[in-house]
Write a structure and sequence with these properties.
Low-confidence stretches: 19-23
Number of strands: 0
Number of helices: 8
Order of helices and strands: HHHHHHHH
Mean pLDDT: 88
CATH topology of the largest domain: Lysozyme
Radius of gyration: 23 Å
CATH class of the largest domain: Mainly Alpha
Structural class: mainly alpha
CATH architecture of the largest domain: Orthogonal Bundle
Helix content: 55-70%
Largest sheet: none
Length: about 190
Amino acid sequence: MNKKIKAGIYMAIVMLTIVGLALIIRNVNNSYVDESYPLKYEKEVNAASEKYGVDKALIYGVIKTESNFDPEAESNAGALGLMQLMPESFEWLQTFYKEDNDYQFEDLTDPALNIDYGVELLAILSDMYEVEDTMICAYNGGLGNVDQWLQDPQYSDDGKHLKVVPFTETDNYRKLVAQNKSIYKKLYFS
């Protein structure tokens, strides 16, 4: 076999190896993305997004941050389900429903119910607070706390934006939700 044929075969083998490795790397990356930022509960998220007018990327960002898609998740503080609703919030949200219901707090492990109530809470908070970042702080830190912070010039200059979030957990939470929302938007909703 002459040198040109050998060189051609060698180049073909190298090219096929490179292409094969690229495909493997792409599959690994896709697998990582699918596992790390899944579109689980898509039907429930789409329904709640449409019903309450809340951005799907934000809903996924909250679920990812709150429970990492574990419908049985329960926090040390007693929050439950995918969107980590507290018993008091759940009771308060039930007053907004016109139909009779017999839901118990434990029912929040049902993804459809949890997502519906969680997104309803996001919609209510969105109406209360003009700034999404402030609304996210209220979802985590509570309305009473956020209302106090907005009235304190140490934390807010305009009563709408929080320049400082005094609870470290809430400050970290809002940043993580924003990051997760941004990733979901880039991956699936851009």
